[in-house]
Amino acid sequence: MPFPRRLLTEDEDVVVELRPHWAFLGRPLVVAVAAVALAVVVVAVFPSAPVGVLYLLLALVAGSALWLAGRLVRWFATSLVVTTSRIVQRSGVFSRSGLELRLERVNQLSYHQSIPDRIFRTGQLHVEMGGETGEVVFDHVPRPAAVQSVITEQIDAMHHRSAGTLGAGRVTAATPDPGSAARPAVILDTPPSGIARVERQPVGEESVADRLVQLDELRRRGIVTDAEFASKKAELLDRL
Question: What are the strands, taking DSSP E only, across the chain?
Answer without folding.
Answer: 14-18, 79-83, 86-91, 97-102, 106-112, 122-129, 135-142, 185-186, 201-202
